[in-house]
Amino acid sequence: MTPAGAIAPLPFLPEAVIFDMDGLMLDSERAINACMERAAHELGHALPPTLWLQMVGGNEALCLRLLSAHIGQAPAMTLLDRAEILYDAVADAGIDHRPGIVDLLELLVARGIPRAVATSTRRPLALRKLAAAGLLPYFGAVCTSSDVARPKPAPDVYLLAATRLGVAPPRCLVLEDSPTGVRAALAAGMTPIQVPDLLEPDAETRALQHRIVGSLAQAQRLLEALLPVA
User: Fold this and answer.
1) Of 17, 101, 106, 162, which has the maximum CB count within 10 A?
2) How open is the CA angle 113-117-121, to the nearest 5 degrees?
3) Which one is catalytic: 22, 156, 177, 197?
4) Are 11 and 190 in contact (CB under 8 A)?
């Protein structure tokens, strides 16, 4: 039995690890929020700071719906277009890594464990962001919202990643920061570890009974516990 407050060991050594991108590998959620706030200010919209947190882990349709509820659909589309221009400049400059991501990726490379990205970001932007941040070479597959019919929390992007790596979904480990992504991984029949960034898991999220850790380094230790001594 796992002691209260302890993280349960992983039940198997994964044959592949699939990564979310924004908020998990890249410190992009803060960058996106800053661009949204700047765009809103430029356009004269006074919006609550909590609104940006509601968008974490969501796709463009969710962001449009949330913004439209405050300022109407046409102004919301204008705001999103302006925020996208601002964010493109940030992405092309290279978004900061989340702590521990390179160490974890280097470990997986050294042990020959295949890796993929499964992101809600559209494909052209996802590839640019990964390349600018120096992370693209670590992955055998990059799967995006452009490649599937349904976004997270549907399992489509995770199932596609498993297919492209040639690994059965139950043998895949997923690393996610958002509840939406965790639900997508569970729906795909995979084992997720959540590494929260801007949002702490609420009671509804914790009720999913997945593993929640405080850092990528802690997630790496769970994986290392199953690896044979090099």
Assistant:
1) 162
2) 175
3) 22
4) no
Sheet holding 172-176: strands in order across? 141-143, 115-118, 16-19, 172-176, 191-194, 211-212
Of the listed 20, 27, 156, 197, which one is catalytic?
20
Q: How far apart are CA 184 and CA 102, in angstroms?
A: 24
Long-range contacts of 3-8, Cβ-Cβ distance < 8 Å, separation of 24 or more: 7/211, 7/212, 7/213, 7/218, 7/222, 8/211
Rounded to an integer, what distance in angstroms lies between the CA atom of residue 173 and that of residue 20?
A: 11
Domain at 16-27+96-224, CATH homologous superfamily:
HAD superfamily/HAD-like (3.40.50.1000)
Asked if 156 is an active-site residue, the reply is no
Contacts of 157 (CB under 8 A, 6+ apart): 118, 119, 120, 143, 144, 145, 147, 148, 151, 184
Report the 10 Å Cβ neighbour count for 7. Answer: 16
pLDDT per residue as tens, the chain (230 positions): 333 457 999 999 999 999 999 999 999 989 989 999 999 999 999 999 889 888 876 678 889 999 999 999 999 999 999 999 999 999 999 999 999 999 999 999 999 999 999 999 899 999 999 999 999 999 999 999 999 999 999 999 999 999 999 999 999 999 999 899 999 999 999 999 999 998 889 999 999 999 999 999 999 999 999 998 86
